[in-house]
């Protein structure tokens, strides 16, 4: 089992969610996060004063998938989140050693 984590622009969330639902995934976790990469922040103007925003708002989407769906999920997220501009985000894939559903005690893919 894999955990696919994508850091994306907030306005692309609905497109990513729809792309994942189209693959038949039943659930995902979304967290509002802040960070920077090559963008190194941006300059904003508020009431005539210029200031540097070093951490930009992003959304972290996490979904646990079976190994055979990994590539399809990565491609679906990449296509849905892509704008072609700097700051589109990153996708990370990690191995999930074990999963347990708290309510029923189901394990691994049965718990997802």
Automatic annotation (TrEMBL):
Any one of the GO CC terms: cytosol
Biological processes annotated in GO: regulation of nitrogen utilization
O-UMP-tyrosine found at: 51
Domain of life: Bacteria
Signal peptide: none
Keywords: Nitrogen fixation, Nucleotide-binding, Phosphoprotein
Gene3D superfamilies linked: 3.30.70.120
GO MF terms held by the record: ATP binding; enzyme regulator activity
SUPFAM superfamilies named among the record's database cross-references: GlnB-like (SSF54913)
Subunit-structure text: Homotrimer.
Record family assignment: Belongs to the P(II) protein family.
Protein name: Nitrogen regulatory protein P-II
Source organism phylogeny: Bacteria, Pseudomonadati, Pseudomonadota, Alphaproteobacteria, Rhodospirillales
């Amino acid at each position: 089992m894999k955990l696919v984590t994508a850091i994306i622009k907030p306005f692309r969330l609905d497109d990513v969610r729809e792309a994942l639902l189209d693959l038949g995934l039943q659930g995902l976790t979304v967290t509002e996060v802040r960070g920077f990469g090559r963008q190194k922040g941006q300059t904003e103007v508020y009431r005539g004063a210029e200031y540097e925003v070093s951490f930009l708002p992003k959304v972290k989407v996490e979904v646990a998938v079976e190994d055979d769906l990994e590539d399809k999920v990565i491609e679906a997220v990449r296509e849905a989140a892509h704008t072609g501009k700097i700051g589109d985000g990153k996708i990370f894939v990690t191995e999930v050693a074990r999963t347990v559903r708290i309510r029923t005690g189901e394990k691994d893919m049965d718990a997802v």
